[in-house]
Amino acid sequence: MLWICLLFAILGVILGYAAFRFKVEGEPLVVEIEALLPQTQCGQCSFPGCKPYAEAIAQGKADINQCPPGGEVGVKALADLLGLDAKPLDESFGIEKEKKVAVIVEADCIGCTLCIQACPVDAILGAAKYMHTVIASECTGCDLCVEPCPVDCIVMSPIKPSVLNWQWPEPIQNRH
Amino acid sequence: MNFTWASAPHIKPRDSVSKIMFKVLLALLPSIFLLAWFFGCGVYINILLATSTALIAEAMVLKLRGRAVLKCLKDLSALVTAVLIGIAIPTLAPWWVVVLGTFFAIVIVKQLYGGLGFNLFNPAMAGYAFLLISFPQEMTAWAMPESLNVWLFSDIIRLIFSVQLPDAMTIDGITMATPLDVVKTQVAMNPYSDVTVLPLGIETLFAQGWGWLSLSYFVGGLWLVQQGIIAWQIPLGILSALALISAGFYFYDAQTYTSPLFHLLAGATMVGAFFIATDPVTAATAPKGRFVFGFMIGVLMYLIRVWGGYPDAMAFAVLLMNIAVPVIDYYTQPRVFGTRR
Amino acid sequence: MDLDGVIVFKGWNLKGGLNLEGHKDLSRQYSIINTAIPNELIYPLVDRSGNVQTALVKAGERVLKGQVIAGSKGVQGTLLHAASSGLVKENEWRMIAHPSGLKSECLIIATDGLDECCPVDEPVDYTQLSAADICEKVHQAGIVGLGGAGFPTAVKITPNNVRTIDTLIINGVECEPYITCDDRLMQQYPSEILLGIQVLLRALAIENCVIGIEEDMPEAIEAIQKAIECSGFNQIQVKVVPAVYPAGGERQLIYQLTGRETPNQGFPADVGVVCQNVGTVMAVYQAIVKGQVLIERVVTVTGMGINKPQNMWARIGTPIKDLVSQCGGYNGPIERLIMGGLMMGFSLPDDDVGITKATNCILVATSKEVTKSSEAEMQPCIRCGECALACPVNLLPQQIYWHSQGGAHQKCQSFGLFDCIECGCCDVVCPSHIPLVQYLRASKSKVFLKRREDEAAMLAKQRFERRDTRKAQEKVAQEQRIRLKKLALVKLQKESASSPVKMQDKS
Questions:
Q1: CB C90 within 8 A of CB C59
Q2: Quick check: C394 and B336 CB within 8 A?
């Protein structure tokens, strides 16, 4: 009996040492979760940005299926990371849409700066009483600027297919 | 003008799966004739039963899976599996053994895993192992070559379909142990005896037909290698492993262990090395990996033959190595041009 | 072959590769013809690698032959010259020479048939030019690699302090079936090519040059060999390589000729080699010795679908249909129109596409020569490994395909996805008729897309965080201001309370 206790004690010490010696330094969970989010900063998940949502997931305050821009792929990636079952997107937060960019119809813009204040990633340039414009390459397509515009001059336009963003299509599967 | 869009290369493909499978079947033909010559035309019935079962079963499952039935059957892969089962099963085995084995191979092992190209295990060998474990007695009923001279074709048909023997014959009277069975029994009964002189030499192998059969598989296999149908690394691995290990033990103690040549020519060594382990779907895929795959099969075969519970070991060795394929593939990636490894 | 001084390689010392039917006799025996001036010259303002060209002329302007009309910026910038005189039209969206078959913005010149030239520099003696002068002239002439990749030549030959170059390799290996433009160039202009080589050697300040030619071009080998004897440029060596596809791949050729393996992340310069295509050398000759800019190149127009296959000097920007009509037009039903070769060229949905500097061949193929897309019936991969045997860069295409099927495009990279040179050998030998190259290309596209998205997400995150901090700072600053104001107010009130008399006095 004593021997067994002794054996267990020794093994325990070894295990404890191993846990200390070979500790795997992982990134904090929040950082890992945030890396999987699309960084659209659209707030559709009900949190003011991707980081707050990541924090909420890490604390168990939010579910993993509240991010429409991330889509089903994003939900699956989160599920894999957190060891959960993937689930369909919660449609009360919105549905997955094709990515668009905001375009300001320049003739209609009155230079009110409301959209500039709404943009979460500072992708709109302009000053009071001067025409504003969207930096297309910085726009995340979050839609947040559309609502505040008093003259409805912002449209979300789909990204045009061109030789620059063209992708080789996969072969049509006429496999049996 | 309007032209069709297509991705390069635009050249026509050279080969097809059905051509490959057809050549494998062709390479098996001489051995099938030899089998019938030595062990009776029961082998034809076996093959006929196996192929029809395979085709019907495959068609059935394909239909259930909503695939184009004819297109899939045309690749001939089910036929190859069926013929391999047909020749692996004793010539006098009852009909339901063949049917059951083939059905298991095609439906469970092949189609339920996703069909051609997706099965983890070699269908023919999985079917064979299933039969060997379930029906050990029926699976050892190899006919005695000389006993068949007096048989009529109808007798064989009667035996296979109704398990009725011609008058004045017993199942023990017409079947015999294979040379590997004999070795197994002897070693088992006399493990520590140092006076045993093994009665089995190469002469027995050839006298009973097994030697000739192995040679015909060897020749057929070499033709397939020459045609570029099978990877030479796998048979080389199997045969070299088996020869090396058995030579080592043979020179250590020739009284207890059988000779390397015996191991190479007995049982399923040759058919396995050239026709079974070379099934590309379930084998390792990189050249180096294929040699490792074959070599390990050879090692396992020797272990099971000498110390295991079964006289022959091809099926188990192949199935065990099928499990190891992903690991082998992972560690035997070739060095890509322009990279350092 | 029993030519003196020619080194013939007996074997193929690379792995993989294929022996392909050449089909070169369709066009190789005919001299290169000149072509008529087309009505329109079409220049896309973006090239295949996505570099944007900026137009330097305005609509309505008249341009002369050889005048610079567009250019791209940056270290790898190139210039584009008008191939004939005429009026610049408004930019239009036209189909361009790109595998997508999509339309893109093009600069269009309506030619006036006068073919009026820009004033040309006096031809100079190249032996008097410095390396920097040569590089500058090559840049000014708008020369890019004419073998197909279109990499700016001036960048390749500009001296670099980091890497020492010791060998110039001239790629005369036309391993793609059907194409014979380099073959014809070597047969017809061997001494010009040798002079071009001399210029390049001077620019690189080296002596050593090897010309690699495929063994099934005996006339070209002989022509070059004779020219070397006549000119006395004995430091130029001719080496004959076996007719194995893809012997003409840059890295494959360098390995075959020198035994040096170009690192997969690096460039030929990393192993001391600069490799130039025969056509590029010809262009260098024309630019330096003759003072002409790059406005035309040799294009092979061939295939069973064309009436008179031949090689032609075509102006860059000439629509394909103009070339086709000068070759006797189409012959019977055409299955596919291919720009480039049978193995690596891309199909075009229309023939109203201008040729580019990288266009070496227009292949008009009938259904006898190419697979109909409806014929290609794909079967599951049986892992036979034929593709791996045929792969010249030693990949396992079957494994990459497997992982790409599972959507694991990142995993594909660990199997060397980006080392794939898209030569197409695996496709040809696949018994299951799987379009492996297309799968790999699609997989590459997806990895690129993911990379772009990740970068964009990273940027968005940074901008969001910066905005957050800025807002927080603004808030703090504002609170500070309010507090200070309140304090000031309180102080003011106190002061007024303590000295009411003064206040009253003042009032």
A1: yes
A2: yes
Residue A3 placed within a domain: no
Residues 6+ apart with CB under 8 A from C334: B1, B3, C305, C364, C365, C366
**Is A5 inside a domain boundary?**
no
The span from the first CA to the last CA of chain A, in angstroms, equals 66
Q: Could you read off the pLDDT tens digit of each residue along chain C, which spans 507 residues?
A: 445 567 777 667 778 889 998 899 999 989 999 999 999 999 999 876 778 889 999 999 999 999 999 988 887 888 999 999 999 999 999 999 999 889 999 999 999 988 888 887 777 788 888 888 899 999 999 999 998 778 899 888 887 766 788 999 999 999 999 999 999 999 999 999 999 999 999 999 898 999 999 998 999 999 999 999 998 888 899 999 999 989 999 999 999 999 899 998 888 988 999 999 999 999 999 999 988 999 999 999 999 999 999 999 999 999 999 999 999 999 888 999 999 999 999 999 999 999 999 999 999 999 888 887 655 678 899 999 999 999 999 999 999 999 998 888 888 998 999 999 999 999 999 999 999 999 999 999 999 988 988 898 888 889 888 988 998 999 999 999 999 999 999 998 888 887 655 555 544
- Using a CB-CB distance cutoff of 8 angstroms, which residues of chain C are in contact with residue A175? 377-380
CATH of the domain at A119: 3.30.70.20
Shared domain check, A147 and A116: yes
B7 vs A168: CB contact, 8 Å cut-off? yes
Tokens matching residue A109: 């813009």
Residue A33 and residue A88 in one domain = yes
Please report, in angstroms and rounded to a whole number, the separation of the first and last CA atoms in chain B: 50
Chain C: list its partners (3+ Cβ pairs within 8 Å): A, B
CB nearest to C424's CB, from B2, B8, B338: B8
Q: Is residue A73 part of a domain?
A: yes
Give yes or no for A169 touching C (CB within 8 A): yes
Give pTM, 2 decimals: 0.87
Statement to judge: residues A146 and A119 lie in one domain: yes
Using a CB–CB cutoff of 8 Å, tell me whether B71 touches chain A.
yes
Q: Are residues A72 and A107 in the same domain?
A: no
* Interchain pair B67, A171: CB under 8 A: no
Contact pairs from chain B to chain C, CB under 8 Å? 179
Give CA separation, B176 vs B15, B179, C501, in Å.
44, 9, 136
Q: How far apart are CA C348 and CA B202, in angstroms?
A: 67
Does the CB of A170 have a partner CB in chain C at under 8 Å? yes
Interface predicted TM-score (ipTM): 0.86
Q: Is C465 on the interface with A (CB under 8 A)?
A: yes
Instruction: Delineate the domains of chain C, giving CATH numbers in brackets.
Output: 20-315 (3.40.50.11540), 379-507 (no CATH)
- In this structure, the number of other CB atoms found within 10 A of the CB of residue C213 comes to 27
Last residue of a domain, one of A52, A77, A93: A93
Instruction: Say yes or no: A102 and A121 in one domain.
Output: yes
- Domain span including residue A133: 98-160
For chain A, the domain total comes to 2
- Beta carbons of C349 and B13 less than 8 Å apart: no
> Residue A46 sits in a domain of what CATH number?
1.10.15.40
Which among C14, C261, C343 has CB closest to B9? C343
**In a shared domain, residues A37 and A64:** yes
In a domain, A66, yes or no: yes
- Report yes or no: A83 at the C interface, CB cutoff 8 Å: no
User: For B260, left (φ over 0), alpha (ψ -120 to 50), or beta?
Assistant: alpha
Is residue A110 domain-shared with residue A86, that is, in the same domain? no
